[in-house]
Recover the amino acids of this structure.
């Protein structure tokens, strides 16, 4: 299912310029701040569910389609698809580093304390 993007009023360069001028005048923003604000508004609008559309993903348990509101990709937040993971070498390196750091932290927190070891020796 291809995503259906709804037309937004500030999709044209002219209307975007009007929006930037509006936020500069009435919002007290610089041109750069207003441009970022318009971009955030656009992204927020694209992430909102499309009115009246449902996910429609097939449920194995009931055999019926999912009735949750659809997002911009045509599926709900539960059926939107899995992450493809990092694709660049830098992203893959960050993932390996994060895994190693997490494993190191886990090992540090799960080592038996010397006090526990001495208490076990006293009991046995």
């Amino acid at each position: 299912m291809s995503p259906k993007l709804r037309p937004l009023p500030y999709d044209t360069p002219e209307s975007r310029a009007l929006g930037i001028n509006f936020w500069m005048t009435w919002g007290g923003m610089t041109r750069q701040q207003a441009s970022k604000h318009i971009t955030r508004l656009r992204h927020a609008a694209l992430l909102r569910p499309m009115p009246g559309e449902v996910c429609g993903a097939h449920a194995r348990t009931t055999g019926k389609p999912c009735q949750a509101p659809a997002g911009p990709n045509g599926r709900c937040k539960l059926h939107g698809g899995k992450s493809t993971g990092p694709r660049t070498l830098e992203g893959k390196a960050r993932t390996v580093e994060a895994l190693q750091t997490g494993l190191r932290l886990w090992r540090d927190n799960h080592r038996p304390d010397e006090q526990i070891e001495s208490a076990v020796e006293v009991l046995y």
Summary: DSSP finds four helices and no strands in the chain. Helices lie at 13-26, 31-47, 89-109, 114-123. Residues 89-109 form the longest helix (21 residues).
